[in-house]
């Protein structure tokens, strides 16, 4: 009888441990479901006075270009407290299997729910002399990867932003690692239609910032199906990320294996002692 209790106790402990291992995966699925609802709502949203709203955003971009961007702040040092639910666009990056809403203002609430457009950077409208600086968490947040795999992006990769008027396509031009106070690195560049992705670096710390610069795709780029640039060797951050994922899969696999073994052992014990 004691042996049977031991089997049962061991099974409960293993199942408990397995649930702990599976918690991030469960969180990921829940977050994906929530994000999918936000994206669906954005796609179904019929914005009233679209032309008026568009012209307001155009004037905002023009003012930034003319008056300068002295108030741009690092996303993780920003004092912004925006909590509104307004989504200004959807970002899709095939290389990273990423599809996330973009909120205006790099508040912690917005970074928790998706990506955030830094204050005093351009609205993503596809205009010259504009740079939309979009921040995202690196290590994942509540189970969502966000910009965790950003180092997979290389020159020639595509980034898509869908606003309420059209889908804009950008091509990655280069990447750069900067210090958090080098905010001038993300300012508007005269005549260029750009987006800049920004996140913490190196993973899983936030000592520096990792930037991905992308420029609006020309017709030639749009007709090219795949970039010709080869994937570079994995960085230390990316190696760590892949190692974490491997250990997670191994832990889950071992947990299932032990549960099955204990289950069969317990059934065998019950049959033997009937």
Task: Walk me through this protein's architecture.
Helix 1 (2-44) crosses helix 5. The chain has helices at residues 2-44, 50-67, 108-113, 219-223, 236-272; strands at residues 87-93, 98-104, 115-117, 130-135, 158-162, 167-178, 193-201, 208-216. A hairpin with a 4-residue loop joins strand 1 and strand 2 (98-104). Strands 1-2-3-4-7-8-6-5 form an eight-stranded mixed β-barrel. The model has no long low-confidence stretch (mean pLDDT 82). It has a single domain (3-273), classed as Sortase, Chain: A (Beta Barrel), CATH 2.40.260. The longest helix is centred in the first third of the chain and has 43 residues, at 2-44. The chain is α+β, with helices and mostly antiparallel strands. One of its GO terms (molecular function) is hydrolase activity. It comes from Longicatena caecimuris. Keywords: Hydrolase, Membrane, Transmembrane, Transmembrane helix. Residues 220-239 are annotated as: Disordered.
